[in-house]
Structures are given as C-alpha cells and as structure tokens.
Amino acid sequence: MEKKNLGVLASGRGSNLQSIMDACAAGRIPARVAVVISDNNDAYALERARRAGIAAVAVNIDDYTDKAEYERYIVKVLMEHGVHLVCLAGYMRLVGTTMLDAFAGRVMNIHPALLPAFPGLHGQEQAWRYGVKYSGCTVHFVDDGMDTGPIILQAVVPVYDDDTADTLAARILEQEHRIYPEAINLYCTDKLVIEGRIVRIGA
Ligand code: GAR
User: Fold this and answer.
1) 136-173 pLDDT, tens per residue?
2) Is the CB of residue 154 less than 8 Å from the CB of residue 137?
3) Is the peptide bond before 116 cis (omega within 30 degrees of 0)?
4) Distance in angstroms (rounded) separating the CA atoms of residues 100 and 91
5) How many CB atoms lie within 10 A of CB 68?
6) Which residue of 22, 45, 108, 184 pairs with 10 in a disulfide if CB–CB is 3.0 to 4.6 A?
7) How does pLDDT run across 65-108, given as a tens digit for each residue?
C-alpha cells in the first residue's frame, strides 16, 4: 500500500504528534508525517518535528489580514507537501472554511472528552468539574462546528474519587496516544466509510 502523507497541526507540546510519528516510524500506519505546522512559534511540537527530520513550519496569524488569508497560507504549505490527511493534534483554533473546503472530509481531530460532552477548551477539566464517573477521548472528522464532526473512535477512562483534573488528563492522554494513530491507520487503509454523520469501520 502506498504511504499517505500526513500534515499535523499542533499548538503546544506535541505528545499526540509524537505518537503519530512513532506509529509511522514503526510501520503501524502506512503513512509519513510530511509536515508539522504550528500557530505558535514556541510549540515544542515544532522541535519534535525538527528532531525527526520533518519539515516544521510556524505560522503567526497576526501576520495575516484575516483568518482566510492565514488558512490559505497553511493550505499552500500542506499542498506543497502533498498532504492527503490533515491531523489536528492539540491545535487550539477552530478550522475555518478555507481549510475545510481544501481538505473536505480529510481533517481529523483528537478531543480529550467523550463528545458530544464537553467540547471546546479544557475538556478534561470540564468533565472532572462536572463530576462524571467516566470520561475519555474522541477522534472525529472535523466539520465547521466546535468538535461536532462525525466520530471515528472513542476510548473511555474511569474517573476516581481522588483524581485531580491533571491526573484525569494524564489517564486520558494515554488513550489519546493509542486511538489517534489507530484512527489514522483506519483512514490510511481505506477502512472508514462515512454515512451522514455515522462513520462505519469496514473490514
Ligand atoms: C491533547 O490532550 C488534545 O486532546 C487536546 O490538547 C492536548 C494536546 O496535547 N486538544 C484539545 O483540547 C482540542 N480542543 P499534545 O500537544 O501533547 O498532543
């Protein structure tokens, strides 16, 4: 199977990016990370990419007149690297129509809660404060809403009485690192069939 090119967008430390790079390097996904783009020049994700010999591009939204122009530049970089699938990995911005139109049905995200519960920022802390007994993480395709796109995979973790938001986030993160590469592999091996907002996993 021919390898697919992934473009990863990350705003911070990049541990999910690392799990994706590791899965590609280990041959667990027939893909390579072709480029990492960050809206934050100081993101450790960029350093992880450079260390792995992967193109690392910082894009500052303040350098552009509006979000569409900012995203046109990102789309250009993604296309220059022949990207098939865009993976948001801790990218802390809503994706606009410019990027969604250019990569229709080809943008994935990982969210640290069981969607549709606790969308938006700090999903782990929202769940912990709410007092749920189980939370988890969700990989989904991205649409124009806030964490509303078709769900691909979810993993559930228990919430314990002595948890803090941080200990819960750490337990969820372990599962993120497991299911994000798995979802990307399903995409890259043509196993995902989207029917409306239902994603079926084929044989
Ligand atoms: C992850 O927990 C990811 O699920 C979350 O940001 C963290 C990034 O960590 N994403 C969101 O909250 C998106 N709304 P990482 O940079 O170590 O992968």
Assistant:
1) 999 999 999 999 999 999 999 999 999 999 999 999 99
2) yes
3) yes
4) 15
5) 12
6) 45
7) 999 999 999 999 999 999 999 999 999 999 999 999 999 999 99
State which amino acid sits at residue 192.
Answer: L
d(CA 99, CA 202) in angstroms, rounded, equals 27
C-alpha 119, offset from chain centre: 14
* Three-state SS at 201: strand
The pLDDT value given to residue 203: 81
Residue numbers of the domain that contains 33:
4-201
Atom 2 of ligand 1: nearest residue by CA position: 112
Total tally of structural domains belonging to the chain: 1
- Assess whether the C-beta atom of 13 lies below 6 angstroms from ligand 1: yes
Q: Which amino acid is at 8?
A: V
DSSP state of 150: P
Q: How many CB atoms lie within 10 A of CB 27?
A: 8
Q: Which two tokens stand for residue 177?
A: 């690192």
Residue 5 pLDDT more than 90?
Answer: yes
Q: What is the pLDDT of residues 6-15, one digit of tens each?
A: 999 999 999 9
Q: Which residues are catalytic?
A: 111
Q: Is any atom of ligand 1 closer than 6 Å to the C-beta of 110?
A: yes
In total, the chain counts a number of residues equal to 203
Which residue reads 């979802």 in tokens? Answer: 183
Tell me the C-alpha distance between 165 and 175, whole Å. 16
Contacts of 33 (CB under 8 A, 6+ apart): 6, 7, 8, 17, 20, 21, 24, 49, 52, 54
